[in-house]
Amino acid sequence: MKKQLMYTGALAMALSTLSGCEVIGGIFKAGVWSGVLLVFLGIALIIFLISKLMGSKD
Fold it and tell me: Is residue 58 one of the residues assigned to a domain?
């Protein structure tokens, strides 16, 4: 219970020191980089699967 209260207090303090625009900007930056990473991993997975399907036919 004390840890949860400590985390909630730390979050409230962090949000009160940042302006709303900074918080939203940080969220969008994290979202953009997460999206870029997911697209990259998706393309790599597709290339890997195609290479396995088209691989050697012994």
Answer: no
